[in-house]
Amino acid sequence: MKAFVTGASGFIGANLVRLLLTRGHQVRALVRSNSSLNNLQGLPIEIVTGNLSDLDLEQKMQSCDVLFHVAALYSLWHKDRDLLYQNNVLGTRNVLQAARKANLERTVYTSSVAAIGTSKQKGELVNETHQSSPEELIGDYKKSKYWAEQEALEAIKNGQDIVIVNPSTPIGPWDLKPTPTGEIICRFLAKKMPAYVDTGLNFIDVRDVAWGHLLALEKGKTGERYILGNQNLSLKEFLEILAGLTHQSSPKLQVPLWLPLSVAWLDEYVLPFLGKTPSIPFAGVQMSAQSMYYDPSKAQKELGLPSSCLKQAITDAVDWFGDHSFD
């Protein structure tokens, strides 16, 4: 099988490419001209340069069998709302149309639990049947992933064979940027996390997420979405695990949400007018008011999604960041 992979140089994409190669598949990776290829160095793959909006994507997909559309712009900054729409929504529309014209057999589209939303009851688990309205989704990133998923659903209605996967919060190696969770780990290791807020997330080993993509290709039902997740933990619990693995102290101070909300609002909406570069996105803090807990049992039962030890994923992430000089 030859797979066309968008977002191959990203966190999930880099792990997916490695899994595909170990399973004997060929990979053609779409990367931007300004993209770092550090995550793909030395891999026996074919690289084509381009963007999600390219009009010649159909030609670039020729001779491939399947598509993994993993690429997405991630930003919690309000100023990036137009870029989020262009990349995540219009880009997805263009990629899926190109795959249909190129007669690719099947597409696995990487959505996110961000597109599903959260329960109004704090701490309640959400599954694939839940859907928050776009107005309830916090921040332009979540909204863009919702509308991108609508593009996939529309393509499915028109007869395209697409399976949707919704990863939760992946952890592990090759987190190059890093992701927000990777940043938490880096800040913790650098002893720059004196406090925490009362929130929670669903965590999963990024290599299990990669397996979830391949299993979705092999076993997923057209038009269905599958939450790729594992363990629900409060941020406090996550930091305590991290502390135990690294022999560092976990932060003891829990700050009320209004405090970081106030700081983030000033940082994003006031300081730029004073010539300062903001560092804390307001939407990112807003999200922490919700516990983002999910039920991955559908993917576990129908796809055989693995549930690897989360402590090992955290250990591997710590080691990877250490080897790559993150601070």
Your description of this structure?
The protein is α/β, with parallel strands linked by helices and 327 residues long. It has a domain of 215 residues: 3-Layer(aba) Sandwich (Rossmann fold). It is built from 12 helices and 13 strands. The strands form 3 sheets. It has a 7-stranded parallel sheet with strand order 3-2-1-4-5-6-10, sandwiched between helices. Strands 7, 9, 11 and 13 form a 4-stranded mixed sheet that branches. A two-stranded parallel ribbon has the order 8-12. Helix 1 links the parallel strand 1 and strand 2. The radius of gyration is 19 Å and the shape is globular. 41% of the residues are buried. The model has no long low-confidence stretch (mean pLDDT 91).
Secondary structure blueprint with pairings:
Layout: E1 2-6, H1 11-22, E2 26-31, E3 46-49, H2 57-60, E4 66-69, H3 81-101, E5 106-110, H4 113-116, H5 139-157, E6 162-167, E7 169-171, H6 180-189, E8 195-196, E9 200-205, H7 206-219, E10 225-228, E11 231-234, H8 235-246, E12 253-254, H9 258-269, H10 282-287, E13 291-292, H11 297-302, H12 310-323
Parallel strand pairs: 1-2, 1-4, 2-3, 4-5, 5-6, 6-10, 7-9, 8-12, 9-13
Antiparallel strand pairs: 9-11
